[in-house]
Amino acid sequence: MKLAIAALSLIASASAFAPSQVGGRAVSTAAFAPKNVAAFEASRGFALMSTAESTELSVKQEPHGGKLVDLMLKTDEEKEAAIAKCTSELQLTPRQLCDVELIMNGGFSPIEGFMDEETYKSVVENMELPGGVIFGLPVVFDTNSEDLSPGDIVLLKDGDRNIATIEFTDKFTPDKPLECLKCYGTATIEHPGALMVATERGRYYMGGKITGLNNPVRDFPCKTPAEVRATLPADTDVVAFQCRNPVHRAHYELFTRALDDPLVGEDGVVLVHPTCGPTQADDIPGDVRYKTYEVLKEETHNPRTRWEYLPYSMHMAGPREAIQHMMIRKNFGCTHFIIGRDMAGSKSSVTGEDFYGAYDAQDFAKEHGPRLGVMPVPSLNLVYTEEEGYVTADEAKEKGLSEKKLSGTKFRQMLRGGEDIPEWFAFKSVVSVLRENI
């Protein structure tokens, strides 16, 4: 009943902000834009370092905000002292666990805790921290507890494992309809992100400083930004590829060919960096996706391709989430980011219409990429042809080539039915893993 009331409340409140919320047709990228980009560009007090200016760093890209955050305590004595200050403990939700990990290890640099009300409002409304640093989406600690108060120090746990402590700084009731409208472009709960805000998140948000104790134990290993940076070649372009689904042939062709883009340096490498945390309800589970990536890594053995995994909770926020992903990958050392068609997009649960245009995220990333310090690389629109294999759609049309197509729905039907999957569409090793696990 509480969930239903929360959902209805969000819809009712949202009517004051949203003009017409049926499917994706009413959504415009203007809804995502910060108010004072020009003023920020003219007045900000820091500049992104060029390669020449960052000779002290082996990796070409600097962390977001200039410094990579590391909140992890190093000794048992320090951890015991931190725990002793706690007056209570809380179990983290899967989404909160991902956020805590990325705060602790610097994936969300430059923030060092969950956002207070001032920071939350600044990010929601202007897509930037109070000091002017661009930040795609708010990172919040939600709760329904009436007992938690500012000043409390709480032990955050995942099962029996101590993950972090948090010292709460404030407690506030968020404007959830405005948050959804600004961040997702819509406040209707037909959108999975807005539904999550309305029905999963608690009534209150609390700001708080995080102190890291232990990384979560996961089915898939998640290196910290510092650990990933240590593996990257010095002074070299690193192109990030984000995905939340198994990698099939077209994906592989897309991110390997991205290295030929004129925007990328001659010796560039690709960092395939899938998100393995919570996502849409009908997506393949993270542990299964991880297995598909591992077998593909072994099958391809491409020296210019690196594989790592990100404990990130998807919002399906389209353009704003593209900025969040670019920012995170910047902290992991990436200079470029592949923006795919309808990146982080979603459909109405009622009408099935897309909430965002196919290239909204791409255009938004191009607009804000220079300010962020990450170069967007538009993804190629590749199709498979009988005559020449994978080529761009324009090339196939120009040459009159015969295209072969297989929809995702048909692929899943063939997978469940035990039918042979054409190798031009999917790698055998990936198909094998999917059949064994879903």
Polypeptide structure, described:
With 438 residues, this protein is of the alpha/beta class. Helix content is 35%, strand content 15%. The chain contains 15 helices and 14 strands. The chain has helices at residues 2-14, 37-43, 76-84, 94-105, 117-126, 176-184, 192-199, 225-231, 249-257, 286-300, 319-331, 360-372, 393-399, 408-417, 428-437; strands at 88-91, 113-114, 141-143, 153-158, 161-172, 204-212, 238-241, 269-272, 305-307, 336-339, 375-378, 382-385, 389-392, 403-404. Strands 1, 2, 3, 4, 5 and 6 form a six-stranded mixed beta sheet that branches. Helix 6 (176-184) packs antiparallel against helix 7, helix 10 (286-300) packs antiparallel against helix 15 (428-437) and helix 11 runs parallel beside helix 12 (360-372). It is globular and about 70 Å long. The two termini are 32 Å apart. Residues 1-30 and 34-56 have low confidence and may be disordered.
Oligomer: single chain
Estimate the global geometry from the Cα principal axes: globular
Largest sheet: 6 strands, mixed
Rounded radius of gyration (Å):
22 Å
Determine the fraction of residues in helical runs and give it as a percent range.
Answer: 25-40%
Mean pLDDT: 87
Structural class: alpha/beta
Strand content: 5-15%
Query: What is the terminal separation in angstroms?
Result: 32 Å
Number of strands: 14
Order of helices and strands: HHHEHEHEEEHHEHEHEHEHEHEEEHEHH
Low-confidence runs: 1-30, 34-56
Number of helices: 15
Question: Which secondary structure elements does this structure contain, and how are they paired or packed?
Answer:
Elements: H1 2-14, H2 37-43, H3 76-84, E1 88-91, H4 94-105, E2 113-114, H5 117-126, E3 141-143, E4 153-158, E5 161-172, H6 176-184, H7 192-199, E6 204-212, H8 225-231, E7 238-241, H9 249-257, E8 269-272, H10 286-300, E9 305-307, H11 319-331, E10 336-339, H12 360-372, E11 375-378, E12 382-385, E13 389-392, H13 393-399, E14 403-404, H14 408-417, H15 428-437
Parallel strand pairs: 1-4, 7-8, 7-10, 8-9, 10-11
Antiparallel strand pairs: 2-6, 3-6, 4-5, 5-6, 12-13, 12-14
